[in-house]
Amino acid sequence: MYRLGAEPAKRMLLTVDGRTAADWGLVLDATPADELDARVATLADRTASVPVCR
């Protein structure tokens, strides 16, 4: 984003498909629509298992 600028980076992020965004390094991962619910559940379980610092 810093080399490209905020506006062009946002435009690219919102207009390219997920696989291209992942290939370009704009996102960490691209999950196909039919696998999305399972991926979200996996990430939610992982997030919920992280200990809370008190």
Question: Could you characterize what this model shows?
Answer:
With 54 residues, the chain is mostly helical. Helix content is 56%, strand content 0%. It is built from three helices and no strands. The chain has helices at residues 6-15, 18-24, 36-48. It is flat, with a radius of gyration of 15 Å.
- N→C terminal distance: 34 Å
* Helix/strand class: mainly alpha
Strand content: under 5%
In this structure, how is the largest beta sheet organized?
Answer: none
* Low-confidence parts: none
The share of residues in helices is: 55-70%
Short account of what is shown:
This protein is mainly α and 54 residues long. The chain has three helices and no strands.
What key attributes describe this structure?
54 residues, mainly alpha
List the helices and strands and how they pair.
Layout (H helix, E strand, L loop, with lengths): L5 H10 L2 H7 L11 H13 L6
